[in-house]
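@channel sequence for tomorrow's demo:
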Amino acid sequence: MVNIEYANAYAEMLEILKYISKEDYDKIPKRRIHLFETNANRNHVFRYNPNLTLDEQHVSLRTKYIIAILFRDYWATEQQREKILKKEKWDMMKTEEEKKEKYNPDNIFHRSNISHTIYEENIPQENNALIEVKENIFIKIVNKIKKFFLK
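structure tokens (generated this afternoon):
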């Protein structure tokens, strides 16, 4: 089962593809078109107006991503494709660097030690005295029975 967001995006794509040139449409593999057709949400109502931008028509973000992928893979010139791939690679490296910094084990432990030190500083010193534990009556009886059997 396809996620409803993707199903709606496929329906929007099918509507948008009606307005592109036959030459550009033919560049898209038939299997991709078939994917859109078989998984589109037929109940999703979307009317494309070529005189308005995608943002003005409230096209979903997933549809915009699909258009970007179609452009990169099928419609872009070689120079455009190289530029897009470099940008995607740079974005991916930037994201990985942010993840490394955010989830670096050294930083996590460092933060943990700082918060632990702050916690220890806030503990009142007068409550650190040892507490004397007294034996209750049941423990005394059990201990006497043990001593009796051990002799």
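heads up for whoever presents: The longest helix spans residues 78-102.
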